[in-house]
Specification:
202 residues, mainly beta, six-stranded antiparallel sheet, 1 helix, globular
């Protein structure tokens, strides 16, 4: 007599031997922030204030924390618009060295893998500039993910996003049925996309 090992899948199948493969299930979410000039202090996470449609075990646990129920490999791409216009032409505000990093279950992902930043050395170079990053993370079941300001250098360590003409912070997640892929998209700043996370079932 065989027994069926209990497992958690998004689309449960009947117990049989051998156990059938799980079906592909929709997984998606949409989170964003439409606040003008979001200010993020060093050591703190970028926030979201509006939640759109969600499904498949991804949700916004609190304004700064994404909850991911199902384990897998997630591809993360992000672009953040960093606003230095608000500093004015004061040369004492530079160099400005905004740096962001991903935190998985409150542990910072390796510097080489998931930290990205800019170097703006003069007031003449100020403006709304993007920070772009790309990585792949292996994420366990029931995990939390945050994007934080980790800047500790320069006279100003705060990161300020651009205005609310577009989304300041946006996160969308979806999984395609054909490739069994979860995609997690975050964006920060004026009409910019901050992160795309793709989860491949293996």
């Amino acid at each position: 007599m065989s027994s069926c090992k209990k497992r958690k899948v998004c689309c449960p199948t009947s117990c049989s031997s051998p156990e059938p493969l799980p079906k592909s299930c929709p997984a998606y979410g949409n989170f964003f922030n439409n606040t003008s000039l979001v200010t993020v202090l060093t050591g703190t996470a970028f926030p979201f204030n509006i939640q759109g449609p969600i499904s498949g075990g991804v949700s916004l646990l609190n304004p700064t924390t994404i909850f991911i129920e199902n384990r897998g490999d997630y591809k993360v791409n992000f672009v953040i618009t960093n606003n230095t216009v608000v500093f004015g032409p004061n040369p004492a505000a530079f160099p400005h060295l905004p740096t962001v990093g991903l935190f998985l279950n409150n542990v910072q992902v390796s510097l080489e893998q998931a930290n990205f930043g800019l170097e703006i050395t003069q007031a003449e170079g100020r403006g709304c500039k993007p920070i772009v990053g790309d990585t792949i993370l292996s994420i366990p079941d029931n995990s939390i993910l945050e994007l934080r300001n980790i800047n500790t250098q320069g006279p100003i360590t705060t990161i300020i996003t651009c205005d609310s003409v577009g989304n300041n912070v946006q996160l969308s997640l979806f999984k395609t049925k054909s490739s069994k892929t979860h995609s997690l998209i975050l964006s920060l700043g004026k009409q910019s996309r901050l992160a795309e996370v793709a989860f491949l079932h293996t």
